[in-house]
Amino acid sequence: MRHPRDVALALVAGASNVMIGSRFAGTYESPGDIRFDLSLAGGSLMDIGCYAVHQTRLVAGAEPTVVAAEVKTKSPGIDRWIRAHLRWDDGRTGMITVGMYSLAQPMIDIRVSGNKALLKVLNPTQPHLYNRVTVKPHTGKMRVRDPMERRRASIPGITHPAQVSTEGRPQHVRVRGETTYWYQMRAFVDAIRTGAPVLTDPADAVKNMEVIDAIYRAAGLPVREPTT
């Protein structure tokens, strides 16, 4: 994710309107899966949603404020689908969508839209299986709005619509590499042998959980409690 993040920062530098979106939805799990057990801190956001939250925070380089959330529940307190609307102090906005009990077409991606271009990263969670990084310039010839634009416009703190696509000549890149587990092990070994800093330390995990808690509160669901 380092390379796409650098591209994202370059695209949005000086932009007045920036929207960051992350989706991890369309997976289907068994109705009796333990990940839907509230006593075990279950739910879509707690499971696959932690990746979408962390990727959004990583790309933004700052902590967001959750201004609103929508949810579909599988059982009392358990989210099978959830969407959160975010805002940063510098005016950027964001949206996270997560669904773990759905027959919808699977989609795992991150989008960053600025004044001049749109960056799309397909499958940042399992890039070794397949990935694609796309940069698409905004030419102004044709502007396609986010289908959630009207909904977003009605949310306090979301002051401008998300521009998700335009006409333009896109550039596609595939990033070659090992599995994500290989990089995690390499980072662990480097930290032990050389004292190299860990990108995802305990403090970062706490910040990620704080955003997850805030999304649950905004959706009217209870925050997940420690299990014994």
Short description:
With 228 residues, the protein is of the alpha+beta class. It has five helices and ten strands; from the N terminus they run H-E-H-E-E-E-E-E-E-E-H-E-E-H-H.
Sum up the structure in keywords.
228 residues, alpha+beta, Dihydrodipicolinate Reductase, domain 2, eight-stranded mixed sheet, two-stranded antiparallel ribbon, 10 strands, 26% helix
Give an overview of the whole structure.
This protein is of the alpha+beta class and 228 residues long. It has one domain: Dihydrodipicolinate Reductase, domain 2 (2-Layer Sandwich), CATH 3.30.360. Helix content is 26%, strand content 28%. The chain has five helices and ten strands; from the N terminus they run αβαβββββββαββαα. Strands 2-3-4-1-5-6-7-10 form an eight-stranded mixed sheet. Strand 2 (65-75) and strand 3 (78-87) form a beta hairpin. Helix 2 (49-60) crosses helix 5. The longest helix has 17 residues, at 202-218. Mean pLDDT is 81; it is low at 141-145 and 157-167.
The CATH class label is Alpha Beta
Number of helices: 5
What is the approximate shape?
globular
Strand sequence of the main sheet, in spatial order? 2-3-4-1-5-6-7-10
